[in-house]
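hiii so my PI (J.) wants the whole complex modelled not just the main chain, which honestly fair. so below is everything: two entries, each one labled with what it is. i double checked the lines twice but i was tired so who knows lol
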Amino acid sequence: KAGVTQTPRYLIKTRGQQVTLSCSPISGHRSVSWYQQTPGQGLQFLFEYFSETQRNKGNFPGRFSGRQFSNSRSEMNVSTLELGDSALYLCASSLGPRGLANYGYTFGSGTRLTVV
Amino acid sequence: ELKVEQNPLFLSMQEGKNYTIYCNYSTTSDRLYWYRQDPGKSLESLFVLLSNGAVKQEGRLMASLDTKARLSTLHITAAVHDLSATYFCAVDIWGAQKLVFGQGTRLTINP
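here's the output for the full assembly
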């Protein structure tokens, strides 16, 4: 069973540029959520998508956006990059219906973004 | 706003010793997760605790949940070097579709 696939693994971008990260969830999983990890702020929630709908959004500026496609793959976009956007971006895949006993989150390997 | 606090944040211990990591959270929740992260790597799921009094064990790690005290513990028994990593607890709030993480506990086990 394939895991959560994030691409690319590493990115180096220049301030002011924009970037798009991709996440393919585990087959059958309909929920994808995104997290930013930095040494200073730890792991912070960005947003969550289920069946192409954003259900929740974290406290990040509008430069951070995302979407989910009909095949459950998700992308997040960061525009007008700032140095502080340098981080490990993790996506997590879950089945979706929270009532399931085996409900849980499986994380991808992450995309390490460096803004110079 | 939900807050999740772990302690200690740093832990250096000798092989063969026992220790406990604590995770306190501020709002009612019925679901708590423990993850392990190795340097430069992603989060590996260790335990999902679904109800009050839940206890799960895997090898030298045992996790428990007390929803009334809003406390979870991760107990390490007879530590070995391979357990060196950063451990995170995370709380899942009904209806929020998100995890709120603790700060992480960096565990170093010395021979």
